[in-house]
Amino acid sequence: MTTVATMVPHSRPSIETDELQAAIEVLRSRRLAQGGMVEQFERGMAAYLGSAGGVAVSSGTAALEVALRALGIGPGDEVVLPSYVCAAPWLAIQRVGAMPRVVDIDLETFAIDPEAARQALTLRTKAIIVPHLFGLPADLTALERLGVPIIEDCAQTLGAMERGRAVGSVGLLTICSFYATKLLCTGEGGMVLSRDESVLERVRMLREYDEAPSLRSGATNVKMTDLQAAIGLVQLSRMACFLERRSRLADEYRAALDGTGLVQPIVPAGRTHVYYRFVVRMPDLHNQVNGVSSVIARFEDRGVQCRKPVFRSLHRYLDLDGFPASEEAERTALSIPLFPSLTDEDVAQVHVALRSEWS
User: pLDDT tens digits, residue range 185-205?
Assistant: First the structure.
């Protein structure tokens, strides 16, 4: 085992003096709950994505649930989603009483496979949840042709483009997550955005129940605080710098891993990548059930924290068969640390670990 003085984390928030000052100003104002800062953050995010407006909520998972409810989706309806994703979309579908229809992914992009989505459509299909994973847009053009409302999950891909369109500007509804390690963070938090103001108004009615003129079934309390929104506004102003740093780090990783036989992140024609995660595939692990875990342990010994990019595919939780691409991703994909606050010393340590593993 190699002894290291420091551990490079897999991810870390990029918090500087401006975020600290913004939080202090809100604390001094004593106006901590949803208020003017939340409204400013909503307008800023809407402008960034070219949406009609946004509705800030307490988490990305809450955003998914209120988005589904705003579309009137409930018992008897079906929603298509990929297997290779975190549990949040499946949980949101379950909570509104609809039926999740889990489908496989395109292995090259890790995104939902449009053909698999097409085959899952029925007369009861009311929406497709499209997570853009690791910084790369899904094939929105192909998915649009299916004629089903799209809910874009931009938790990992803000700032990316698909055929000249900003990710998050294509679907009927878009959700964002601002968890601590996301591209833009507020600690916790999320948002629903849309180009349809009437849908946004339904989301606002579901976000809170206080002082409503009547009782609204499905309304809850998932508001964002001004404290979170103040941090989010500063982070939004820094997005261009964040993305530039991520791109530079990705270029360095590509150069370091060239010729190793690893499958590096691809960028199909017409799409851009913002590198929320730098995910490689290790074809040699195809037949090894715990191969990724072994690689992760070796990196830990070298002082670098890597992760499986998705902990477990949904079809495995549900004991379903027929998901070869998701299975392959689980067996062979590894996420290497990449975030804007990586120091030059961190990067050097990661490069040493990469060369030790794949020289």
Answer: 999 999 999 999 999 999 999
Whether residues 246 and 233 share a domain: the answer is: no
pTM for this model (two decimals): 0.95
- Are 116 and 147 within one domain? yes
- Integer Cα distance of 339 and 350 in angstroms: 12
CB atoms within 10 A of CB 314: 22
Q: Is residue 326 a contact partner of residue 116, using CB atoms and an 8 Å limit?
A: no
Task: Report the number of distinct structural domains present in the chain.
Answer: 2
**97 belongs to a structural domain:** yes
Task: Answer yes or no: is 333 within a domain.
Answer: yes
What secondary structure does DSSP assign to 21-77, as a single string?
A: HHHHHHHHHT--SSSHHHHHHHHHHHHHHT-SEEEEES-HHHHHHHHHHHTT--TT-
Q: What are phi and psi of 194, to 5 degrees?
A: -160, 160
At a CB cut-off of 8 Å and minimum separation 6, what does 315 contact?
83, 102, 321, 322, 323, 326
pLDDT digits (tens, 9 = 90+) for 53-109: 999 999 999 999 999 999 999 999 999 999 999 999 999 999 999 999 999 999 999
Shared domain check, 110 and 43:
yes
Domain that holds residue 87: 17-237
